[in-house]
Specification:
This protein is α+β, with helices and mostly antiparallel strands. Helices cover 34% and strands 25% of the residues. The protein has eleven helices and 14 strands. Strands 4-5-10-6-7 form a five-stranded antiparallel beta sheet. A hairpin with a 2-residue loop joins strand 8 and strand 9. Bound molecules: flavin-adenine dinucleotide. Flavin-adenine dinucleotide binds next to strand 2, helix 6 and helix 7.
């Protein structure tokens, strides 16, 4: 790992100003994805700007119809939140099954979505629930946030400050996880709201994606059987690693059915 400058930011303004000043800086939150990247020398920033102690970035606020999660809130905190369990149980359950205890105690929602790993769990939740991402300078819809493999709509020095979720009528997440890492080989989140159903898939493709045919069928009748015979083409899916593209395509329908069954309780 190359030598670098370390800054501990005290505020959002301080963090953004420090990154702007750096030759090639990176924000550091829980370090669960960035530190392995640095150790493997897949990136060599001149500066790390830690956002972990910025008070304004941390915490959970639940109000009627909406849930706000600050960027540095850990997966363990989301999983343990009684308020989130009551408002969006599928979201708390998703956080509970990220990685292992160490990853959940250090890893944060802001770091996870900024990293945009194709097998990460949160992207499915954000897209299915129709969340919005707040940054230091704007609001980005989840549909526009995830733009590709490890790619987001964030500018190089843009800081995620929070994620806002509308509370759905029902939602659930079903994941077929890698035994080794617990990352999703295929994970599907379904969310039913007054305006219809959204289905978002992570792990199977190069980035999170929605399945329109499933959304239509479930909006007409919210039941696992509504998905009988609906499949996604394997051509655009990840091929190799833990599973072939054909197997991932099969899993999308199986996990979607399981998620609907779980949402129905
Ligand atoms: C063994 C292992 C197993 C894992 N299993 C899973 C799993 O099952 N499911 C899953 O979803 N994830 C899994 N992860 C990833 C984990 O969830 C990470 O916590 C997450 O991907 C990154 O969050 P972090 O806070 O650690 O971010 P960091 O590692 O600190 O940062 C990651 C990236 O995000 C940027 N960043 C961080 N915070 C912000 C911010 N506020 N605004 C803008 N950019 C920011 C950083 O610059 C960096 O590029 C696993 C990780 C490990 C090591």
């Amino acid at each position: 790992m190359k030598e670098l400058n370390f800054h501990r930011a005290s505020s959002v303004e301080d963090a953004v100003a420090s990154l702007k000043k750096a030759e090639s800086g990176k924000y550091l939150s829980g370090g669960q994805s960035l530190l392995p990247v640095l150790k493997l020398e897949m990136a060599a920033p001149s500066d790390l700007v830690s956002v972990a102690k910025i008070k304004d970035l941390h915490g959970i606020r639940v109000e009627p119809g909406k849930v706000m999660i600050g960027a540095t809130t850990t997966h363990a905190e989301v999983a343990a939140s009684a308020e989130i369990r009551a408002a969006i149980p599928g979201l708390a359950a998703l956080a509970e099954h990220i990685g292992d205890a160490q990853v959940r105690n250090r890893g944060t929602i802001g770091g996870s979505i900024a990293h945009a790993d194709p097998a990460a769990d949160y992207p499915a939740a954000l897209v299915a629930l129709g969340a919005t991402v707040k940054t230091d300078r704007r609001t980005i819809s989840a549909d526009a946030f995830f733009t590709g493999l490890f790619e987001t709509a964030l500018e190089a020095d843009e800081l995620v400050t929070a994620v806002h979720f509308p509370v759905p009528e029902r939602s659930a997440y079903a994941k077929f996880a890698s035994h080794a890492s617990k990352y999703a080989i295929c994970g599907v989140m379904v969310a039913k709201t007054a305006s219809g159903v959204r289905v978002a898939v992570t792990g199977a493709g190069p980035s999170v994606f929605r399945v329109e045919a499933m959304e239509k069928a479930l909006s007409a009748r919210f039941a696992p059987e509504s998905l009988d015979g609906i499949t996604v083409p394997s051509a655009d899916l990840q091929d190799g690693g833990d599973a072939s593209a054909e197997y991932r395509a099969h899993l999308v329908t199986v996990m979607a059915k399981r998620a609907v069954a779980a949402a129905l309780g």
